[in-house]
Amino acid sequence: MRLECAVEIVECAGDLFVASLQQRVDCAAHLLAEHVGKLLHRAAGLLLLLHPLGCLLLRLAAAPRLEERCHGPNIGRRARTGNPSAVYPVCVLRDTVETFIRQQELIPPGGAVTCLVSGGADSSCLWHVLTALGYRVSALHVNHGLRGAASEEDARFCAERFGAEVVDGRGGTTEDDWRELRYSLATDRLRATGHTASDQVETVLYRLVASGAAKGIKPKREDGVVRPLLTVWRDDTEAYCRAEGIEFRTDKSNPDTKRGLIREEILPRLRELHPGAERNLLRLAEGRPSALDELLGSTAGSRRLDLGGGLTAVREYDRVWVEQTPVALDGEVRWGEWRIASELPGLKVRAWRAGDRLAGRSKKIQDVFVDAKIPRSARESWPLVVRGDDVVAVPGIVEAEGVLVERVAD
Predict the structure, then answer these.
(1) Of 348, 201, 221, 210, which Cα lies nearest the Cα of 278?
(2) Are 223 and 187 in contact (CB under 8 A)?
(3) What DSSP designation does 257 have?
């Protein structure tokens, strides 16, 4: 009897222990599930932010930068770079094209447009971008038959890749003839071509040589043909196609054309003369004022502009002058009739600016000039030795330890 009671007591205790353990496990599981649920909720919220944040970061990273390259000994050799643009991320390129379309009123929102496609990167990019932006896009390919089997392959590619209508465009003997033939087709529709900023620059150069006029490609022709890619460089269209996995054809006959000569021979030489050559030509084509025009066209406030060649244009309200660009004082510097030398770190030599003061003092440099009886006409070209915004020395007037100054004859 005692044994049976003991067994019963042990069984009850076991049941209680199991129930208690189960309750603790259920509680722990509940807490764990609740914690995991909160984490998943936060993760879902984070995922919702990732797409716009990613696009924002891409936009911030996409600011075009122009790399200044020194004039090397390779002048006369063919440069291998394409154009001065930074490669745009996909979403930025689309936004750039859409903004240009809206500004120029090229295509109605959601409207129908026929892309004249060749199969190359530019027209392939055009077709894909306009489709992605929600336009009703169709395609037309004109086969001039100029390259035999390669022309047939281009036509087949466009028909299969874009569903393009292929038109026989044989006839004509010049590039102008073939272009006019293309533009004479499908005149009952809104048509778009894949001309880019690179084409714009090449066209300006050719027209300058051929007619002396710096006329560029119009965003919209009189017959209604539009060019939505005119603010995008050729490198950008190729990068877009690769990023989107879009195949495109390469026309091996391009180097033999007038445009090919400009692209392969002339533009590389111009880049060697100045790295900003293409952007400046594009500004000319678009009729945009140069930075110097903008400086001279206003009298509000003050502005400085590096002209290159060691010169800087300065405007203070309605007064304009040219001065030497600041130079680092590494060893010795020649500034006009002054020879200035120092081994102290962080020093520069530059011209006087309104508001300059002596380092560690309240006295203005203008008052220093007045006290030294320096003529007003000489002050703007008078050299100052500075560290940051502080004037360390004024040659011939205020000396500084470690800065050697000598006035020499020209």
Answers:
(1) 201
(2) yes
(3) S
**380 contacts: CB under 8 Å, gap ≥ 6:** 314, 321, 323, 351, 352
Question: Which of 49-63, 122-136, 148-162, 258-272 has the lowest average pLDDT?
Answer: 49-63
According to the model, what pLDDT value does residue 4 have?
Answer: 52
- Helix boundaries (H) for 249-391: 258-261, 267-273, 277-286, 291-296, 365-371, 376-379
Terminal Cα-to-Cα distance of the chain (whole angstroms) = 129
φ/ψ of 161, rounded to 5, equals: -80, -40
Amino acid in position 315: R
- CA pair distance 271, 196, nearest whole angstrom: 18
> How large is the average pLDDT for residues 181-210?
93
- Looking at per-residue confidence, does 338 or 318 come out higher? 338
Q: Can you say whether the dihedral through the CA atoms of 52, 53, 55, 56 is positive or negative?
A: positive
Phi-psi region of 250 (alpha: psi -120 to 50; beta: other; left: phi over 0): beta
- Which residue from 380, 382, 392 is spatially nearest to 313, judged by alpha carbons? 380
Contacts of residue 228, Cβ cutoff 8 Å, sequence gap at least 6:
97, 100, 101, 106, 107, 126, 129, 130, 192
Q: What percent of the chain has pLDDT over 90?
A: 46
**Which of the given ranges, 51-55, 115-119, 319-323, has the highest pLDDT on average?**
115-119
Task: Choose the most confident range, by mean pLDDT, from 18-27, 45-54, 227-236.
Answer: 227-236
Q: Which domains does the chain have, with CATH numbers?
A: 90-286 (3.40.50.620), 289-324 (no CATH), 326-407 (no CATH)
Taking residues 265-275, report their average pLDDT: 91
For residues 375 and 24, the model is more confident at: 375
Task: Count CA within 13 A, CB hemisphere, residue 225.
Answer: 18
What does the pLDDT average to over 274-280? Answer: 88
CB atoms within 10 A of CB 141: 24
